[in-house]
Amino acid sequence: MADFGGVIAAEIRLPEAINRRHLCPFQYFGIDDDTDLRNIPWNRGRYDIAQLTNLYTHNQSRFNIILLNLQQIITDLSKMKALAFCVSQEHAYYMTKQLLLNGIKADVLTSDNSLERQQQQQAIRIGSINVLCVVDIFNEGVDIPEVDTLLFLRPTESLTIFLQQLGRGLRLAEGKECCTVLDFVGNSRPEYDFANKFRALVGKSSRAISEEIKQGFPHAPLGCRIELTKRTQEMVLSNIRQASLTVKRLVAMIRQFPHHSTLPLTLTNFLAQHPHIDLNELYKRGSWAELVSQAQEQVKENTAYEDAHKMIKKAIYNRILTCDDHAYLSFLKQLCQTGFVIPDSSPRQALMCHYDFWQKTGTKLGFDSIEQSLTKLNLLGFKTELFDVLDWMLAQTKHEQSLMDNLPGVSLRLHARYAREQILVAFGATTFERQPPAREGVFVIQEQNIELLFVTLEKNEKQCSPTTMYHDYAINENIFHWQSQNSARPDRGRGKDYIQHQETGKRLFLFVREQTKDEYGRTLGFVNYGEVEYVSHAYSGDREHRFWPS
Predict the structure, then answer these.
(1) What DSSP assignment string belongs to 321-356?
(2) One domain, residues 174 and 275
(3) Residue 517 belongs to some domain of the structure
(4) 162 and 287 share a domain?
(5) How far apart are CA 220 and CA 171, in angstroms?
(6) Angle of CA points 7, 426, 330, to nearest 5°
(7) Can you give the pLDDT at residue 539?
(8) Tens-place pLDDT, residues 309-361
């Protein structure tokens, strides 16, 4: 990672890997196992292993449910090649014994007999055993493509481990059409995170995961099926509702922090203890400083203090958490470290920071300079909080982002996402003294002979008039179909300008977003696709143009 500046050059998520057929599809069955885990103690982000083991190894009815579902779902148990993930060695030996008693060829692999790993892997491959019961030993680094069934016989608290275990069954193999996953689900504690597990299976979506669950996962990866029994669905939805980050729950967690950690109470340390918390969810409820103030029952100092915290919360929630430009986030982090002293090389990034927080021109706010504006930000005393937010955001931002060619003054990166105002600042259209209105899909910067194209792919009649329901979409990886405004004609005016833009030296830049709002109801930013050039057009009253990245 150090050789790449701490940034992953390429990344592929589970749903995309399946869609591209790098991994095989899965059939996931979430099955109620009729156990109640709500009274099992929860410590350091997981259930108590000893009590979970005791519950599972003295529960014949649970095994009967497991066996019944295996018989109903798996076509031929004698040909099954399964890994069964158990909570402990005692649980693994118990399951192996029960399976053997019911005529299913099974064996166990734990750290006690790990020297037999190669032998056990070969046994699964050739089918001399049908189920291998394991304990945290086949999470990663093991490749048995022939495995076609996974049995989750325990709750997997860590999303990373769940995905690693799931990955054991998704390797491609000749004659293997899919992997069958049986996940046996008990009535869980509210701390257990179902939401992120199902989000990982479905992939990125603007829809709430609860809606995906209620509607039967319509956005599952290609060829995949996610099916929950009625009882399981009810339990999962109930858990998600209980686990929702209300202000009351966040404040309670902050109050409990000193009882669970020897570290000082900071946002970074809090997130380390509660890694399932998404900062977007947290800041939807309040800023970190506000929540800590409530938890510690601090008295509000004055109205100005409250107004400052509202402004900071709004800026972080609506701007910082919605921008994924690694370079800009790193610049803001540098400002936190230097007391908001502006580097000589970054005047437009400094102006982006001004507008992210203040939202108005410096003149309207009574500032004489950008330096004065950022000095005032420094005095508000939120650097530590912002620094921790930026650290979290930088950890989430891992895709490659290149510099834009032949634009030395523009601080944007290709394939990063920005608010419209940030883009206008970066191109010099918005200045410290002037903030032009920009609500249309096209913004012209006359003095630079530049035109910015803002495209929203999913349009609806509530937000767009019939004349602005443009038909915009990517034709392939290189060509984008863009429908111009009503006034554009190929033989005159703006339409002709687009066709001849290379001859006249006009530069066109494309910014695209999926829809107007994100899953939190915020205005969604635009992804920078960079400079584009005209390729062709078709005109029959539809005003169509095609561009490709230059």
Answers:
(1) GG---HHHHHHHHHHHHHTSPPPTT-HHHHHHHHHH
(2) no
(3) yes
(4) no
(5) 18
(6) 30
(7) 62
(8) 889 999 999 999 999 999 999 999 999 999 999 988 789 999 999 999 999 99
